[in-house]
């Protein structure tokens, strides 16, 4: 049956009825690989402040941004530390950015605990904390990014697709969106459906590492960013938090009765999270280098 919309999961009852919420989360991850998380624990005022800082940065003079680009103008906080020397707009709010990054981490851990509950992982294998204990704050490649898609759309770019079809590499991604929609998801691996803005919601999706870890039970679904003609006059801002397991975590099949325990086509070799991420990054950069050389 064709999937026509992205499920909404209400986390307000996660503490009182975790099994119900966890099942809704896992059902979404098994089908479309995306869901909206509402009534989470990140205050909307904090999200708005982070977006304001993002806009303040992107509004800086071009010369200043070019200086920053030699480091990386999008990755802001990693492992509770600035990813690179910070421009003043971020440096003055370093404490807030570290706090916000930790709130994202804690929220992502809630989702991983939901995974552990619904997959009924035995206590001797880690129980509901099987996934969460493998995602420490200071030993993984998790990162918060600030993104801007400049106005112009088809008029300037001659193509409504502004970020090509791709999947994410980690366990899960938390995406904060503001004002301008545009994300599309390849539901059922065939048709594209839109991911509309839902006030106060975080859009969550499964990454490649989690699909491998669950041996295909969870779906890391292709998605892209488009600009519709009615949004050509607006900039689009988003904030993804890419959540990765610790580098030394083996991505062998999760010890759950719902997960096939046979290794996939990778043979007998089970990648660690760090090895898998490096493999994905190398493939991406090699493809980009080859494309640019043609």
Automatic annotation (TrEMBL):
Gene3D superfamilies reported in the protein's UniProt record: B-lactam Antibiotic, Isopenicillin N Synthase, Chain (2.60.120.330)
Pfam families: 2OG-FeII_Oxy (PF03171), DIOX_N (PF14226)
Originating organism: Rhizopus delemar (strain RA 99-880 / ATCC MYA-4621 / FGSC 9543 / NRRL 43880)
TM segment ranges: none
Gene Ontology molecular function: metal ion binding; oxidoreductase activity
Protein family: Belongs to the iron/ascorbate-dependent oxidoreductase family.
Keywords, in A-Z order: Iron, Metal-binding, Oxidoreductase
Fe2OG dioxygenase domain sequence ranges: 139-245
PANTHER family registered for this protein in UniProt: 2-OXOGLUTARATE (2OG) AND FE(II)-DEPENDENT OXYGENASE SUPERFAMILY PROTEIN-RELATED
Name of the protein this chain belongs to: Fe2OG dioxygenase domain-containing protein
């Amino acid at each position: 049956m064709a999937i026509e919309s992205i499920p909404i999961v209400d986390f307000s009852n996660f503490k009182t009825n975790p099994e119900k919420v966890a099942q809704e989360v896992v059902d979404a991850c098994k089908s479309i690989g995306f869901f909206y998380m509402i009534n989470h624990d990140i205050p909307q005022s904090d999200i708005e402040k982070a977006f304001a800082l993002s806009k303040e940065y992107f509004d800086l003079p071009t010369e200043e941004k070019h200086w920053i680009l030699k480091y990386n103008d999008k990755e802001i906080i990693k492992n509770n530390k600035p990813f690179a020397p910070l421009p003043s707009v971020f440096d003055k709010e370093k404490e807030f950015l570290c706090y916000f990054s930790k709130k994202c981490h804690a929220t992502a851990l809630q989702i991983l605990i939901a995974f552990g509950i619904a997959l009924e992982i035995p206590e001797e294998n880690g129980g509901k904390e099987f996934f969460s204990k493998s995602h420490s704050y200071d030993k993984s490649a998790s990162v918060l990014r600030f993104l801007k898609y400049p106005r112009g759309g088809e008029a300037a770019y001659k193509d409504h697709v502004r970020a090509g079809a791709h999947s994410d590499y980690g366990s899960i991604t938390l995406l904060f969106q503001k004002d301008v929609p545009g994300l599309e998801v390849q539901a059922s691996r065939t048709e594209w459906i839109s991911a509309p803005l839902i006030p106060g919601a975080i859009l969550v999706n499964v990454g490649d590492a989690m699909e491998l870890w669950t041996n295909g039970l969870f779906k890391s679904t292709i998605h892209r960013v488009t600009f519709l003609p009615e949004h050509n006059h607006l900039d689009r801002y988003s904030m993804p938090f890419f959540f990765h397991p610790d580098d030394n975590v083996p991505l062998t099949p999760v010890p759950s009765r719902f997960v096939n325990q046979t290794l996939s086509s990778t043979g007998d070799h089970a990648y660690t999270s760090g090895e898998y991420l490096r493999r994905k990054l190398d493939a991406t950069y090699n493809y980009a280098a080859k494309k640019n050389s043609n």
